[in-house]
Amino acid sequence: MSRSGNRRQRLAARAVLPLVIATAEARERLSLPRPVSALLAGCAPVAAAVARPRRRWPAVALVWSAHMWAYKTCFEIPYDRPEQLRRRLRIDPPIRADTLIGRGRPPSQRLQERLRRPPHLSGLDRAATALYLLWELEPHLALAWVLARHPERFRRSALQLGLTFDLTLVGYALFPTAPPWWASEQAGRMGGSVRRVTFEVIADAKGDPRPEGDHKSGNNPWASMPSDHFASAVAAATLLARLNRRAGALAWSYALLLGAILVYTGEHYVIDLLAGLGVAVAADATTHLLEDAFTALPHS
After folding, report:
1. Which of 9, 151, 221, 295 is the most exposed place for a label (fewest CB within 10 A)?
2. Nearest 5°: phi and psi at 203?
3. Both ends of the chain: CA-CA distance in Å?
4. Rounded to the nearest 5 degrees, what angle is found at the Cα of 168, between the Cα atoms of 163 and 173?
5. Residue 49 contacts by C-beta under 8 Å, 6 or more apart in sequence?
6. pLDDT given for residue 211 in this prediction
7. Confidence at residue 295, expressed as pLDDT on a 0 to 100 scale
8. Which ranges of 107-244 does DSSP label H, i.e. alpha helix?
9. Is the bond into 119 cis (omega within 30 degrees of 0)?
């Protein structure tokens, strides 16, 4: 394609990208069907890839930001109709699985009953929350490190991590699952003893009133299986370990610590972590297959 044709494509994509985002954000007001909303969200990273600027870092920032926006939007879409999603909600199956793993009691319940004295917030609660919040940056910092130090491996790393995030959406759509804190606080399971520690710590840090019973966020409280937190942390550790031993060791240490924190704070069951691990392994294997298929294609 000619240079002028490429320029027209980029200009068109730059016009389409904000339109796609605005429409998807207004999906409830427009009464869009959920599949249409998900399709619109999926168009955003495609449009960003076409519209990307020529310089490497701005191009990566635009495409990855569009992908993460699309992920967040698709994460929320199943909860656009909570009354319909509630009919498929799984509350007891993960509790039964974790009861077997915990030898008679789910590990979240066991840890909180042993280590917490609510309503007191301990140093452990605050440290666990700080490390939990670090996850908001960790996968993106891992990709930035790869881009800065090993740019030839960035495309493969971004594909692997992006696939990891995206595959968790399949679980959230097909198997809506209540996390430990919701099962305990809202459904009375586990004797009501498991609390959402992170929200209590954040509210206390802000000086807001501590929530007494409802820690529900406005996104999708029933997106627990598999754990996107653990899956992406494992994916980041896997791709970093291939490039640098120290970076990989640090990332694996954080992933394992994060897994323990997710269980302690009531964010995820152990079975959610195992499912997240499976997602990370599947994304890694799929990335290998896609790489092999691309390499096998004839190049002109």
Report:
1. 295
2. -60, -40
3. 15
4. 130
5. 63
6. 62
7. 62
8. 107-115, 123-134, 138-149, 154-174, 180-185, 197-206, 228-241
9. yes
Read off the pTM.
0.92
| Residue 55 exposed, middle or buried by CB count within 10 Å (0-12, 13-18, 19+) | exposed
What is the C-alpha separation between 99 and 91, in angstroms, rounded?
13
The packing angle between helices 138-149 and 245-264, to 10°, is: 170
Q: At which residue do the structure tokens 């954000």 appear?
A: 25
d(CA 213, CA 205): 18
- The contacts of residue 297 (CB under 8 Å, 6+ apart) are none
pLDDT at 216: 54
279, burial (CB in 10 Å: exposed 0-12, middle 13-18, buried 19+): buried
SS3 233: helix
Residue 120: φ, ψ to 5°: -65, 135
